[in-house]
Amino acid sequence: MHLRGTNVGLEERRRREKENRRAAILRAARKLFFEKGFKPVTVESIAQKAELSKGSIYLYFNSKEEIYTQILLSDIEKFHKGIADLFRTGETASDLLVELAKIYINFFLGDKELFRILMTFMLHTEHMNLPEELNRHVVKTTNKTISVIEKIFQYGVDRGEFPPTMNLRLNRDVIWGLLNGIISLHLFTGFEARREERIRATVEEGIREVIRGLIAPEAGAEGPMKAAAGGRTDR
User: Fold this and answer.
1) Rounded to two decimals, what is the model's pTM?
2) Predicted local distance difference test score (pLDDT) of residue 4
3) Could you tell me the CATH number of the domain that includes residue 72?
4) Is the distance from CB of 142 to CB of 119 less than 8 angstroms?
5) H helices of the chain, where?
């Protein structure tokens, strides 16, 4: 009994050590990808940052591409969990868009490293040479966030809040671009003490401006983001 208990204890300690070492590798890689971007980082530099041997890295990951992908996938999934109950609030579609933006901003203001890593992937995917399977997995995970925006617009159409002729994809992409563009513009520039305030205020006003264009009350007025005839079918 005593030996069995000892073996179980050793196995548990080894498991924790492996988990801690894997987490240390991801933390080190995060710092390097944030500071240097994707291309200059190597498995050797990650190992050095994590204070491990290069061989130790390969016990947990096959390549720096896999490490990079794992960082994106695990942390973006945390964001998705944070918006899981978004549609249960019973709010209007307009309020849901603003609330989603607030959650998105708060998430990435709390993790600037991840935001820069995500933007690197989105802007330079073709130069990263990620294996097709890994690239497809990251794109699919990222698109889950974008699809939530489209789902909110569809909800607004269904409840009569937004016009049935609106172009769902176009408006989705406008909001997605607005979120990431404004965060990118202000996150690392300008007076630091006012960066977060400026990001929040600009994003909310931008979203409300899009909404005002969609529900413009003037007779026959076409909001700036309405589609041409038949636009709603463009999904």
Assistant:
1) 0.77
2) 59
3) 1.10.357.10
4) no
5) 2-36, 43-50, 54-58, 64-82, 93-109, 112-128, 132-158, 168-187, 192-214
